[in-house]
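Methods — Computational structure assignment.
A single polypeptide chain was analysed. Its primary sequence is given first, followed by the predicted tertiary structure written as structure tokens.
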Amino acid sequence: MKEVEIPNICKMLWIWIVSALLFLSPRAEAFDCGSTIELLAGHIFSPVIIGADRQDLNYLSLDVRYEFLRPFKPMPLFLEATYNRTTKGPDGYMAGLTILVRYQFPSVQFILPYVQMGAGVLYNNIYKDYSQDLIGNNMEFNPQLALGLKYKISSSCAFHLEFGFQHISNAGLGDRNVGVNGIGGFIGFSWSLK
């Protein structure tokens, strides 16, 4: 039986999502209550902060987020699907799901500042490389924190800039768990669905 390669499945999924977003016709006012979809791309650089003497592990990230709940007007919750490909350090990929909670500050003109945090799980193939000790399990956790600006382009579309910190580790569940501490920037767009 042939093994299905996760990266090819992820690439097909991203192509389908991007294609679907291009043909959406959003109808809601930006920043109002209602579901949104966000598509962001960025680059994370590590090591930083604690353990700055660790091995490098830099990666490109493509994230698709869906606002699935808004318990309070300034606090939407997002489900994020992410695909990361390393650019420096051990070769490989990480793909997974994250839950994000965001606090949106009052908007100034067309700009909406926000802070968000979240955590989730990442499946990866980097753990197979025993020349590194950063990632030691096929499933890793990814707590993260970010600051962002959302710039309203139209009533249904906005441009995003984000700067954030990401940590990746397996909480001691694998045979290696030095972990990754990285910072980076993201750019992207969001579309209101309602």
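Note: The first helix runs from residue 6 to 22.
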